[in-house]
């Protein structure tokens, strides 16, 4: 269990921690000279046999709220210390508001300096506390009077903490490992040690991690050489614990780690500087600041300048998770734009402060750390946010899939919810989702929606055959149009996957770039059929380099002006394909042209289809290679970025 103190300056937080643990957490010379906490202090003690409790002692002075915030991001219980003589003071209120906005699960109030007041004042202070807590999530919190110098009241505090620790449920250790770094130092003989709170996932000795600092945008790759949980050597640490990691790696020299940095599993989602959040403004601060105001975001142990803008008038509906339960103030969805990226994940709690005025303004939780650049207030996007906001991951995914117009972006969902691949796969299976690979990552459809697309695909091909019996069948573009699918990446991926499934199941066949029902024979006039057979006999043995039209005409013994209209007719029906102005291919040869591009992309580390490599592989010469690659671009199999050709749609291309 991790406990943090809270409360006004000089009310007795550090003294209480020292009385409970024997550790003086005011270790800085300046702290000792001034008798005041400036930075976070850390201590741990076994309050009962085998029951280790970690303490984070925070400063109470209003100037150091920033330090206080770095310590309370992932605690199980807050120890609000209020001096009986003073009663609640400004930072009592501010710290309490922060604890509520961060949804700290438990609060114990210690009424300190009970030895300095008489019984009447003690009762009055108790009454003031009662009024302070009333109506909030901590209304039922226990209040214990304590006199630290005499030790009076301490056994009851200890007992309460032991009971809370025993009742504590381990946090789910789901997701990729994330640690919010709060300290980093060198230990003689061991090297670099980094400490912090584990916000999600699990880490074990030997794991490879990524250290993200503002100086190292790409992150440094490091190995966990050793680790400690609450001062004891351990093999692993998990969400809800604080730990110290001894790190090894050549890249450590490139930059120092420090408070606000992140240690992440190598497969963890990237950092982000755009957060879509559920926000709760504290009352009593006037109107929320406008979108140009620069506020300070506190998330994990990081403090980052941020601008905030409301996402329309949207608020999450009934389905939404609202764990904030703060005093009434305006609440709603908002977009935060950060000056520096953070490793935020769904559900992370944060605080917004006005750094100049030294005031806490708002708090909330992260709904989506990967919101789109544009359209952030569109109805579709708000439906996505409402889906993501559901606490249960399976329900959230179901709503996410249902909110998608065609197929849901499963990669986005997994990254937003910080799901590992194995966790995502279980959810996909439980929902019986059809998962489709696309250029933009995995897409998901409900099983019935997927079955519907497959059925409509076959109907569209049947309708094509009925309407155009002299044609091979439709190509992808015609099918997309027939099915009312747009040209989006998702539409292309769904169509290609549906065709591939139908082909694998024997319901469809591919012929070049077209599709047909198995056994479909285009009905041709006898003369056309005969000429086509003659063309086939000439084109087929020539493979990937068929004769140019002039040579084809000579070989057929036909004048060119007679051959060209025939070729045009065959082209319209998909029986021959014009790859270059003067060269026609058999449909099955076109499939070979695409297959060669696919093989090259698969063999190439970066997935490019280089013209020179294509020429060497096919042996069709430089000029025809250029024409073929241009044709493949037009056909949507490859894409030219001005320099190189790239395979579109992953390895599942229009010829599969
Ligand atoms: N008489 C009496 N004095 C106390 C008690 N608790 C703390 N003090 C005294 O109050 C002063 C401040 O105590 P600290 O524990 O440093 O207060 P703090 O809340 O940690 O202060 P900051 O960290 O600066 O916010 C010290 O001189 C303590 O000895 C108590 O229960 N009774
Ligand atoms: Mg202190």
In short:
It contains 19 helices and 31 strands. The chain is α+β, with helices and mostly antiparallel strands and 656 residues long.
The secondary-structure class comes to alpha+beta
Helix content: 25-40%
**What low-confidence regions span 5 or more consecutive residues with pLDDT below 50?**
317-328, 650-656
Dominant shape: elongated
The termini sit apart by 56 Å
Radius of gyration: 33 Å
Query: Biggest sheet: strands side by side, in what order?
Result: 2-3-1-4-5-6
Beta strands, count? 31
- What does the average pLDDT come to? 92
Strand content: 25-35%
Hetero groups: guanosine-5'-triphosphate, magnesium ion
Q: Quick one: biggest sheet?
A: 6 strands, mixed
Quickly count the helices. 19
Protein topology:
Elements: E1 2-6, H1 13-21, H2 29-34, E2 41-48, E3 51-57, H3 65-71, E4 77-83, H4 90-101, E5 106-112, H5 119-133, E6 142-145, H6 154-167, E7 178-187, E8 191-200, E9 202-204, E10 208-213, E11 216-229, E12 232-234, E13 236-238, E14 242-248, E15 262-265, E16 272-281, E17 295-299, E18 302-310, E19 331-342, E20 349-354, E21 359-368, H7 379-388, H8 393-403, E22 408-409, H9 410-416, H10 421-430, E23 434-436, E24 443-445, H11 447-467, H12 476-482, H13 489-504, E25 509-511, E26 514-516, H14 526-542, H15 549-556, H16 560-573, E27 577-580, E28 583-585, H17 587-603, E29 608-609, H18 611-618, H19 622-634, E30 638-640, E31 645-647
Parallel strand pairs: 1-3, 1-4, 4-5, 5-6
Antiparallel strand pairs: 2-3, 7-8, 7-15, 8-14, 9-13, 10-11, 10-15, 11-12, 11-14, 16-19, 16-21, 17-18, 17-20, 18-19, 20-21, 22-24, 23-24, 25-26, 27-28, 29-31, 30-31
The structure holds guanosine-5'-triphosphate (GTP) and magnesium ion.
């Amino acid at each position: 269990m991790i406990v943090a103190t809270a409360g006004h300056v000089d009310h007795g937080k550090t003294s209480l921690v020292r009385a409970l643990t024997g550790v003086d957490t005011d270790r800085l010379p300046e702290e000792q000279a001034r008798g005041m906490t400036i930075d976070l202090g850390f201590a741990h003690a076994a309050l009962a046999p085998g029951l280790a409790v970690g303490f984070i002692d925070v400063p109470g002075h209003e100037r150091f709220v920033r330090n206080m915030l770095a310590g309370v991001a992932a605690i199980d219980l807050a120890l609000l210390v209020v001096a009986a003589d003073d009663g609640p003071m400004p930072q009592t209120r501010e710290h309490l508001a922060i604890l509520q906005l961060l949804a700290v699960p438990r609060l114990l109030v210690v009424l300190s300096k009970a030895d300095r007041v008489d019984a009447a004042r003690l009762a009055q202070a108790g009454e003031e506390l009662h009024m302070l807590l009333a109506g909030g999530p901590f209304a039922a919190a226990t209040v214990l009077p304590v006199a630290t110098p005499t030790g009076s009241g301490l056994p009851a505090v200890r007992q309460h903490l032991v009971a809370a620790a025993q009742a504590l449920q381990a946090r789910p250790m789901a997701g990729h490992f994330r640690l919010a770094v709060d300290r980093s130092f060198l230990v003689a003989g061991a090297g670099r040690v980094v400490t912090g709170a584990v916000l999600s996932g699990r880490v074990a000795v030997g794991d490879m991690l990524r250290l993200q600092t503002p100086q190292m945008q790409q992150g440094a790759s490091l190995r966990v050489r050793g680790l400690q949980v609450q001062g004891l050597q351990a093999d692993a640490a998990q969400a809800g614990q604080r730990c110290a990691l001894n790190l090894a790696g050549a890249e450590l020299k490139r930059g120092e780690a420090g408070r606000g940095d992140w240690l992440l599993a190598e497969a963890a989602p990237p950092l982000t500087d755009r957060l879509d959040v559920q926000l709760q403004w504290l009352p009593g601060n006037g109107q929320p600041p406008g979108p140009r105001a620069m506020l300070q975001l506190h998330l994990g142990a990081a403090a980052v300048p941020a601008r905030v803008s409301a996402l329309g008038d949207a608020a999450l509906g009934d389905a939404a998770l609202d764990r904030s339960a703060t005093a009434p103030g305006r609440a709603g969805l908002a977009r935060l734009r950060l000056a520096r990226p953070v490793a935020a994940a769904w559900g992370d709690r944060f605080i917004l402060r006005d750094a100049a005025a030294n005031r806490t303004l708002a708090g909330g939780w992260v709904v989506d750390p990967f919101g789109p650049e544009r359209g952030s207030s569109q109805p579709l996007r708000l439906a996505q946010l409402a889906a993501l906001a559901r606490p249960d991951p399976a329900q959230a995914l179901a709503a996410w899939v249902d909110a998608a117009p065609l197929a849901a972006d499963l990669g986005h969902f997994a990254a937003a919810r910080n799901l590992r691949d194995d966790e995502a796969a279980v959810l996909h299976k439980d929902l019986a989702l059809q998962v489709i690979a696309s250029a933009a990552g995995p897409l998901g459809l409900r099983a019935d929606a997927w079955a519907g697309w497959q059925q409509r695909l076959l109907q569209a091909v049947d309708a094509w055959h009925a309407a155009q019996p002299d044609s091979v069948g439709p190509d992808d573009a015609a099918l997309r149009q027939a099915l009312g699918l747009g040209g989006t990446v998702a539409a292309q991926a769904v169509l290609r996957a549906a065709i591939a499934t139908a082909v694998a199941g024997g319901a469809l066949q591919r012929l070049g770039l077209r599709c047909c029902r198995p056994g479909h024979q285009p009905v041709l006039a006898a003369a056309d059929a005969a000429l086509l057979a003659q063309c086939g006999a000439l084109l087929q043995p020539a493979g990937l380099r068929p004769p140019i039209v002039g040579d084809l005409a000579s070989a057929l013994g036909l004048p060119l002006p007679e051959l060209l209209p025939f070729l045009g007719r065959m082209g319209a029906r998909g029986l021959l394909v014009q790859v270059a102005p003067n060269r026609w291919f058999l449909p099955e040869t076109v499939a070979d042209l695409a297959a060669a591009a696919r093989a090259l992309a698969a063999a190439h580390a970066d997935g490019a289809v280089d013209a020179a490599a294509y020429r060497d592989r096919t042996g069709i010469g430089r000029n025809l290679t250029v024409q073929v690659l241009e044709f493949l671009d037009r056909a949507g199999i490859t894409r030219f970025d001005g320099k190189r050709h790239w395979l579109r749609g992953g390895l599942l291309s229009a010829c599969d």
